[in-house]
Specification:
Helices cover 39% and strands 16% of the residues. The chain is α+β, with helices and mostly antiparallel strands. The strands form 2 sheets. The chain has a 4-stranded antiparallel sheet. α8 crosses α9. The termini are far apart.
Amino acid sequence: MNAIFQMEEPKQSLTFKGVAERLTLGITRILENMPGVVDVRFAEREPAEKRSLLSWEQKNTCILPEDLRDFYLTTDGLTLTWSVKLDNECVPLGSMMINSVARLCPLLQPVSLFSLPNAPSLADLDWEEEEDDTESGTANAPAAPHFDSRSCIFELDSCGGNGKVCLVYKNCTPGVVAQQSEIWFLDCSLCWHLLTTTFTSYYRLMITHLGLPEWQYAFTPYGPSPQAKQWASLYQPLTFSSELNLADPAGDFHLNKLDPTKAFKGKAKTPVLKKKQSTQCSLGSTAKSQGSTGRHSGGRR
């Protein structure tokens, strides 16, 4: 992990492309060689200062995971975007983003003094989600984060308005420093989906998916939108096809499947009757044909 984010030589001795290739594991060169891909941009940033990381930890009462700390000590956030050329126009498509330390803000802001006393909040969803999990039988699934003080949630990526990738500390206690963290995806319907348990794994997932739109929805039961699937099948066919098989190990309950034994059940009972009828009809038709032949022959005689 440290080999990915820690530089072995001073930054001044590295070229811009060298920094981009090392931080993105060479994905910038791969994107530039893809058909139709244009305007690959990597925003170079200075490393974050150690005191800013310590200040963040003291302010939020959370310890940054070691791999995320190494990342920030290499570059204070990440922004890599790329576009495609359609009808002589550049259309922005891919985006890989990780907020800087200053923008690693809590997802749940303090309640404003000007808000209504009985106004609903995200914390009101916790009770409903627990009831739904119990009724649907998903109690064995990983416990989802809470919108109240039991979880500390920080936004890593806004996903272009298609959800939020968050650094989550669960089972938090007021006054106690939280240490264990995970990476979760909060979709537009405010449902949580576990992505990875470490920042390193999430970083590799983001690079592997090329920052395509809605790629995080591949880890949800319903998947990305049809338009996002088209882009994925075009620029990420191998990973896209494998994700369809791994999206739902229980049997792809969200997909319509054709069961021939049920769909054609009514037609499966009729062959025996049809055979008998066809035999009788064939005998009758043979007799008729013989009779007609006799009449024709008698008439000729």
